[in-house]
């Protein structure tokens, strides 16, 4: 039975990217096979490197996401890949590192690669053209909290979607509210968290919305506002007064931009842990 490698300790992520775990697993397999030197396939290496750069925000200290494990994985990818076969592609995409008389090795420039993939990741035209269902489903994860002993064996799931545009832009989609309702119904979840993120010259900005009904909605909204260190402020730009079927949505600006879904999801799971006490 495969054992999941959860890179999380003491409420802190020990890697920024799952792709770092892929590199570590690959290197471990090579080491166990007794192979002294390994070369990553360049087509795979460029994908792994690009995602690690994205997830770590190019190892920016201000973002606080990259770790020494991410840095090591990036270094291994850069140094243990024969990039020569991709030289023309890297040059065409303007992500080829500048060569010098001291270092004439063909390899991607991490900063150029990061700028290229980030511009596509946060492309406003792409996100604006998505329907609400597509935007919520593109990067969605479900979570199963441990319920109190008096739950009569009932199970519950809640979901969290990452959307790379502002709440204000998302709320202009023609199917905004109906799309949220349809999305939650299709996944049979009573609670949905929507995390919004945008990138600009001033850095990463985050916003959070909680969607649900009744007591669970109100309790979770109070929980995320008073627990952890998300530094939430009720949004004055996007509001929703509720619908006849009971759906309510709370919109927040999130001042702690370092808190991604890796931090917010465990915080929401703690609501049920505290309910068990």
Q: How many β-strands, per DSSP?
A: 8
Overall, the morphology is globular
Main pleated-sheet profile: 6 strands, mixed
By helix and strand content, what is the structural category?
A: alpha+beta
One letter per element, helices H and strands E, the order comes to EEHHHHHHHEEHHEEHEEH
How much of the sequence is in beta strands?
A: 15-25%
Strand order of the largest sheet: 3-4-5-6-8-7
Number of helices: 11
Low-confidence blocks of residues: none
Task: Name the helicity range.
Answer: 40-55%
In angstroms, what separates the terminal alpha carbons? 33 Å
Rg calc:
21 Å
Q: What's the overall average pLDDT, rounded? A: 88
Structure description:
This protein has 277 residues and is α+β, with helices and mostly antiparallel strands. The chain contains 11 helices and 8 strands. The protein has helices at 18-32, 42-55, 68-79, 87-92, 110-121, 124-129, 132-138, 167-170, 176-187, 214-226, 261-276, and strands spanning 8-9, 12-13, 140-143, 158-163, 191-200, 203-212, 232-234, 248-254. A 6-stranded mixed β-sheet has the order 3-4-5-6-8-7. A two-stranded antiparallel sheet has the order 1-2. Helix 1 (18-32) crosses helix 2. The longest helix is centred in the last third of the chain and has 16 residues, at 261-276. The chain is globular. The relative contact order is 0.10. The mean pLDDT is 88.
């Amino acid at each position: 039975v495969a054992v999941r490698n959860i890179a999380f300790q003491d409420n802190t992520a020990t890697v920024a990217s799952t792709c770092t775990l892929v590199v570590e697993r690959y290197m471990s397999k090579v080491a166990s096979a007794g192979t002294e030197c390994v070369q990553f396939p360049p087509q795979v290496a460029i994908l792994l490197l690009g995602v690690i750069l994205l997830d770590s925000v190019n190892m920016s200290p201000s973002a606080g996401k990259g770790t020494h494990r991410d840095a090591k994985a990036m270094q291994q990818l850069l140094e243990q890949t024969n990039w020569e076969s991709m030289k023309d592609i890297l040059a065409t995409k303007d992500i080829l590192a500048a060569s010098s008389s001291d270092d004439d090795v063909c390899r991607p420039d991490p900063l150029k690669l990061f700028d290229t993939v980030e511009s596509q990741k946060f492309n406003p035209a792409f996100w604006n053209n998505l329907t609400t269902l597509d935007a919520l489903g593109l990067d969605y994860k479900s979570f199963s909290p441990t319920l109190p002993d008096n739950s009569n064996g009932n199970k519950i799931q809640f979901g969290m979607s990452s959307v790379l545009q502002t709440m204000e832009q998302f709320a202009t989609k023609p199917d905004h509210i109906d799309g949220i309702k349809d999305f939650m119904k299709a996944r049979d979840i009573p609670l949905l968290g929507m995390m919004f993120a945008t990138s600009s010259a001033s850095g990463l900005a985050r916003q959070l919305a909680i969607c649900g009904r009744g007591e669970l909605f109100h309790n979770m909204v109070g929980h995320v506002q008073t627990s952890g260190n998300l530094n939430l402020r009720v949004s004055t730009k996007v509001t929703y007064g509720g619908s006849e079927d009971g759906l309510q949505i709370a919109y927040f600006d999130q001042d702690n931009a370092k808190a991604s879904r890796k931090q917010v999801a465990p915080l929401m799971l703690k609501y049920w842990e505290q309910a068990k006490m």
